[in-house]
Design brief:
Blueprint (H helix, E strand, L loop, with lengths): L1 H26 L15 H4 L7 H7 L3 E5 L27 H4 L8 E8 L3 E13 L8 E13 L10 E6 L2 E5 L4 E2 L5 E3 L3 E2 L2 E6 L12 E3 L13 E6 L17 E8 L1 H4 L12 E3 L2 E2 L26 H4 L1 H8 E2 L15 E9 L8 E6 L2 E2 L6 E3 L5 E3 L6 E4 L7 E6 L10 E8 L4
Length: 430
């Protein structure tokens, strides 16, 4: 009898040991240190040394990210992990599709900050090695989407964001309370906040309209049918972790990310390009799977609405917000803005006798950059770009760009003898 009991206890002990090992090593992934605490950056700590840095601002507003995971495609959902462009240990973007399944995707979020007299513009961008889908037309190597906050400056305090845009595949939405939108711009709804930090939702890979890593405010975001409520709750813990698991609701799956300056990618925009590099050209990641070179960094995002211009979402955020949202009272110039290669300044225009100048058009080579609605011509030949006393545009275009500004009449024909006082200043390399 005693021998039978000993055998029974031995069997039960072995079974319990098996279940424990299975839970540790298969259910939740390998053992590792507990999740780090969220990094906090209150104003008193940031400004305690008398200097408020751009990185401290980025840390204070670092978002919480609810990333949905589509378990049906892309290495059983791994394609929905956020990571750095160099996740595989090299600065080559063309092999990232192939290297994703076998590489640990440690969480990285890219940040940027610009400053005017009235606002900080704080951006966060998210990289995925694959934009994957069930059909090949929606697939391409590399994927880069992001958000940008318009944050009013306070005296001795950080203030909550006033407005946020999100970008995904050329679709741009603006979020905030009581926003009055201009014609053609898209209002996304309320801006979800945890304190001053935005809470956002990133859609998973797939073919539906709200897929392919499009970003929304977490307040009433769209649902995605195939993910089975699987996801990850990314937060800024200062450490680039690999998600333990994504099974089940993201509330149960925390993962710390590390902030990385967007300047690390911006510094590569002028090449070298092609195989062995991150970019194929000034505004495109190098990729050869399905649609080549299909992903764009923020300085080359193109929008599907009537406001802004290619790249303005990063190079001139004050312009972007003022064109889309009415009544924000944004300063038109910058105290700090490292994300522009050109400033276009227009001082005045005068028409020859008997002729009238209705508008201006800005050309880069043979490509028309502006539309006629940008320019407001006043008495004495004064020019405003979109109003509010703005006379300059900060632009991200290659440094060998050739610019031309022409005056046009009511019929849209060039006024050849018009005199335009303007300049295109190429800024120092940053």
């Amino acid at each position: 009898m005693k021998k039978a009991r000993r055998i029974l206890w031995a069997v039960l002990g072995a079974w319990m040991l098996f279940l424990t090992c299975k839970a540790l090593f298969y259910g939740r992934g390998p053992l590792r240190a507990p999740e780090p605490a969220r990094v906090e950056m209150p104003y008193a700590l940031a400004a305690g040394d008398g200097v408020l840095t751009m990185e401290e601002i980025a840390v204070h507003y670092a978002p919480e990210v609810h990333a949905a995971v589509n378990v049906l495609i892309s290495a059983s959902g791994k394609g929905d992990f956020i990571t750095g462009v160099d996740f595989d240990g090299d600065q080559t973007a063309r092999n990232n599709w192939e290297n994703m399944p076998s590489s640990p995707l440690a969480a990285v979020v890219y940040w940027s900050v610009q400053e005017t007299d009235t606002h900080y513009y704080v951006g966060y961008d998210f990289y995925h090695p694959r934009d994957d889908a069930e059909i090949w037309l929606d697939k391409h190597e590399n994927d880069f989407e992001g958000i940008l906050l318009a944050v009013p400056k306070g005296e001795g305090a950080f203030l909550p964001p006033q407005c946020m845009y999100t970008q995904g595949h050329g679709g741009v939405w603006f979020y905030g309370e009581g926003l009055s939108m201009t014609e053609g711009s898209r209002y996304g709804g309320a801006l979800a906040l945890d304190g001053d930090r935005p809470v956002i939702y990133i859609a998973p890979n797939g073919t539906l309209s709200h897929a392919g890593h499009s970003i929304e405010s977490d307040a009433g975001h769209s649902l995605y049918w195939s993910v089975g409520n699987s996801g990850i709750r990314y937060y800024h813990g200062g450490e680039a972790q690999v998600p333990r698991t994504f099974k089940g609701a993201w509330e149960r799956n925390p993962c710390s990310y590390r902030l990385e300056p967007l300047l690390t990618l911006w510094s590569l925009r002028n090449g070298p390009y092609g195989e062995g590099a991150v970019f194929a050209s000034y505004g495109a990641f190098d990729g050869d799977n399905y649609r080549p070179n299909a992903a764009n960094p923020p300085w080359a995002w193109r929008n599907k609405t009537r406001f802004g211009f290619g790249g303005s979402f990063l190079s001139d955020p004050a312009w972007t917000f003022s064109r889309a949202v009415e009544g924000l009272a944004l300063s038109p110039g910058y105290l700090q803005n490292p994300y522009a290669d050109w400033v276009i300044r227009v001082r005045s225009v005068s028409a020859p006798a008997g002729k009238t100048v209705r508008s201006l058009r800005l050309w880069r080579g043979e490509s028309l950059v502006s539309d006629d609605a940008w320019w407001r011509l006043g008495e004495g030949g004064s020019v405003e770009i979109g109003g509010e006393g703005r006379t300059s545009l900060w632009m991200a275009f290659p440094r060998d760009s050739v610019w031309r500004l022409e005056a046009v009449d009511e019929a849209g024909n060039p006024v050849a003898d018009a005199v335009i006082d303007w300049e295109a200043e190429r800024l120092p390399v940053s």
